[in-house]
Amino acid sequence: MHIGGARTALYNWLAARHGEGTFVLRIEDTDLERSTPENVAQILDALRWLELDWDEGPYSQVGRAEEHAAALQKLLDSGAAYRDSATADDVKAWKAEHGADRGYRGTPSADGSGAIRLRVPDEGDTVVDDLIRGEVRFPNRSYDDFVIARGDGSVLYNFAVAVDDADMGITEVIRGDDHLSNTPKQLLVFEALGIEPPRYGHVPLLHGPDGKKLSKRHGAASVQELRDAGYLPAAIRNYVALLGWGPGDDETLLSTDELVARFRPEDVGTSSAVFDEKKLRWMNGRYMREMPIDEYTEAVRVFVEAETAGRPLNEERFSFGCEIVQEKAQTLQEVWPLIRFLFEPPVQDEKAWRKVMKGDAARALTEVEAALIELPDGGEGPNGDGFTIDSVQSAVEPLPEKLGLGPGKVFQPIRVAITGTTISPGIFESVAALGREETLARIESASSRLRDAVETDSE
């Protein structure tokens, strides 16, 4: 589901919840090639994940063939619609005779065959009283008597959607402004049926940071891609709601309840908004940092199940690992790479090794190992072995000054030794989380590799 479609769904949902109305989900599936069961399932999946619950539906447009046929017959009986056997060439010839700016006007076929067209008045305008854009006028003279059903009786979108809106009592529709040109046709159908139309609000389409229509070239452009990248539904709702709409102040972090309380379609702007994933990442990071740790840990657990292949993880260590990276990660996807070293032997980043494990690194690791060995083995800490954040900090923090080295010359070799990379949670937290036995084993392994390298060089 494209993020632009998600914003449209969100605006409708917010409007319905704000006005204590009914949010109706209809699958407009008259295009049978695109409306596969798989595509429909993806729409429902995206809406459920975004927590946009619907009150009625999902209704299928194709499943309402009988209602559409009855409405067609009503228009044929009243003369508001007629069958016309004119071909595309016939229409082209008619316009050449009457002027290219004139809408085609046909005559009923003698034998009652052909597509069904709606009669469009020659005079006046069809006026869209848009919730967002205000009054938009469309001259009737420029519109063809447009086709509302094929020769076999199957209806076209603009007719079906108007009939469905009428039957379902729809009073308000918010949709992309690429539909604005369809709206006068739908209003003409309503007028022919003698039914009051809904109010429409047409939202400008989303653009990427380069000013072009949002697409895959701008990164994650669908709800499913954002979910797989580790974004939170609440953060997406917050960010997407602000793409074209604002609460009237400088607030950017708004709970869903606040969005419901403050959203009005009339406040949506008429300029295209820019979807910038960098800004979404920032907002998602704020949401993650402000989550209660239990909720945070559970969200991470669900997300990393694919990474861990469902294998059980040490519960205490996992919870502690989530806690020490909560301030660091901006998406759920970023958490596992930061804490993987707690559950798997590190995969050595050779570039990081070459950058860090040189000069005084061997001396630093020797001193670190000696200082950590001296820590009492107590029953405290995430592993019950005396390695707490405070005890590790008290042992390691004085070493740079003792050795006459900068902190990076001491802490980075520890980080590369125990995680395989130069990126991890805080070094004291990482050592406490990994625990006495594994930390000392990994430091000894790194020291051994450094000794071997020295011996090889000396030979």
Description:
This protein has 459 residues and is mainly alpha-helical. It has helices at residues 3-18, 37-49, 65-78, 88-98, 157-168, 183-193, 223-228, 233-241, 256-262, 277-290, 293-308, 315-325, 335-339, 350-356, 361-373, 389-396, 399-403, 407-419, 427-434, 436-458; strands at 24-27, 56-60, 81-84, 115-118, 125-130, 134-139, 147-149, 172-176, 199-203. Among the domains are: 61-172, HUPs (Rossmann fold); 346-458, Arc Repressor Mutant, subunit A (Orthogonal Bundle), CATH 1.10.10.350. It has 20 helices and nine strands. The chain has a three-stranded antiparallel beta sheet. The chain has a two-stranded parallel ribbon with strand order 1-2. It has a two-stranded antiparallel ribbon with strand order 5-6. Strand 1 (24-27), helix 2 and strand 2 form a beta-alpha-beta unit. The chain is elongated. The protein starts with a helix and ends with a helix.
Topology:
Elements: H1 3-18, E1 24-27, H2 37-49, E2 56-60, H3 65-78, E3 81-84, H4 88-98, E4 115-118, E5 125-130, E6 134-139, E7 147-149, H5 157-168, E8 172-176, H6 183-193, E9 199-203, H7 223-228, H8 233-241, H9 256-262, H10 277-290, H11 293-308, H12 315-325, H13 335-339, H14 350-356, H15 361-373, H16 389-396, H17 399-403, H18 407-419, H19 427-434, H20 436-458
Parallel strand pairs: 1-2, 8-9
Antiparallel strand pairs: 3-4, 4-7, 5-6
Helix pairs in contact: 1-9, 5-6, 8-10, 11-12, 12-19, 15-18, 15-20, 16-19, 18-19
